[in-house]
Amino acid sequence: MIFSCYLLDKIDLFGAIKLERDKHVIQKLDESIVQSITSLNMIIDEIERYLPATVWQDAGVGMQYLPAPD
Predict the structure, then answer these.
(1) What is the tens place of the pLDDT at every residue in 3-38?
(2) What range does the domain containing 45 cover?
(3) Is 19 part of a structural domain of the chain?
């Protein structure tokens, strides 16, 4: 009886184990993405402290940095 329950669990007929594993992987990926974004924003803030003031200008194919007018 125990062996048959074990086999049914390993077969995962209803996909419950795969679903839980997928949810766990997605949660860990979300945490990693949030941590990476936070880290990158800190780096961007640090770099922007050393850059001269700039303005955005539409270059037709995308936005580009131009030096701020003096």
Answers:
(1) 777 777 778 777 888 899 999 999 999 999 999 999
(2) 15-67
(3) yes
